[in-house]
Amino acid sequence: MNARFFASDNCSGIHPQIMDAIIEANQGHVKGYGYDVYTKQAEMEFKKLFGDDIDVFFVYSGTGANVLALESCMRSYEAVICSDMAHIHTDEAGAPERFLQAKLMTVSSVNAKIKPEQVKRLLIGRGVEHHVQPKVISLTQSTEYGSVYSKEELKAFGDFAKSENLYLHVDGARISNAVAALNISARELIRDSGVDVMSFGGTKNGMMMGEAVIFFNKELAKNFLFRRKQGMQLSSKMRFISAQFQAFFKDDLWIKTATHANNMAKELEKGLLSTGKVRVTKPVQVNAVFAIFPEGVSEILQQEFPFYVWDEFINEVRLMCSFDTTQEDIDFFIKRVKELVS
Asked: What residue ranges do the domains of the chain occupy?
């Protein structure tokens, strides 16, 4: 059997319906840089999702989306407050600090989630020229540990940010999985919670490439066309990103694929627990499973089923499911685990 990887949902291919949309868009000539019918239609899909009064911009990558979204909210003497596990802090090679020329202030998290009262403690020295000025709260939904902020938790952050004259950014690289897990509309979860700007991911859920930056606070979007160009995230043949998003939203494909990936993670969790020898270390809410294998097992498994060691100090690994993960993939992996731990 040709086993699929559990390293990341980035390792999966392109969903066939999205590939078909790319091929269909590959006809004739259209205007470049987003002045095409595919981009206009994709923008309309986002407005169906979140409401008409938003601004949408398409970019290549999640890091680019995060950096440009944050840059729109702040100046170099201001700061972003985020979890100590946030992707912008741990996995973007310092890109936010380099391009924002600003400070990230981290908060100790539980399962990568933080609370407004923790942020409150960092709001010192405001108005004092010797201190960096906090300006943006950045939350990841779903988080780097596969946890999910509920509607109530996000709303609490939205209310807090507004009361403290801060902006709220959501890194939604896996927003599809969070929306599917909570069984709630994207508008109710994100816009109605008071989020100012978000990075909306597609690559991790079946797209070839492409993310969107969505502004609910349209004042922040005023100069984004220039920021995107200067930030090297303007695609000349943007129709091939936009066409993917059209397919992504058609007949709720994005929710169906995310739900499948989430369900496969629950099946993986169930299989690991059935061995009696593997400890699942975090609640499984979306498409991520974190676990600790008996000594020596993960090293053997990694040769056959690539995945990442997440915490080297406790040998905790991360196993990711994708839109194309199958029950056969899970069963094959669990069978091998049982052979190694018996």
From this structure: 16-252, 253-341
pLDDT digits (tens, 9 = 90+) for 40-66: 999 999 999 999 999 999 999 999 999
Is the separation of the CB atoms in 212 and 58 below 8 Å?
Answer: yes
- 212 membership: H or E segment, kind and range: strand 211-215
Task: Give residue-wise pLDDT tens across range 307-329.
Answer: 999 999 999 999 999 999 999 99
Pairing of strands 279-280, 308-311: unpaired
Q: Which fold has domain 16-252?
A: Aspartate Aminotransferase; domain 2 (3.40.640)
Q: What's the pTM? A: 0.96
Distances 157 to 20, 102, 196 between C-alpha atoms, Å? 39, 22, 11
Q: What is the mean pLDDT of residues 284-296?
A: 97
pLDDT band at 1 (very low <50, low <70, confident <90, very high): very low
The residue among 249, 140, 115 whose CA lies nearest residue 195 is 140
Assigned CATH class of 253-341: alpha beta
> What's the rounded Cα separation, in Å, for the pair 298 and 199?
33
Strands of 288-292's sheet, edge to edge?
Answer: 279-280, 288-292, 316-320, 308-311
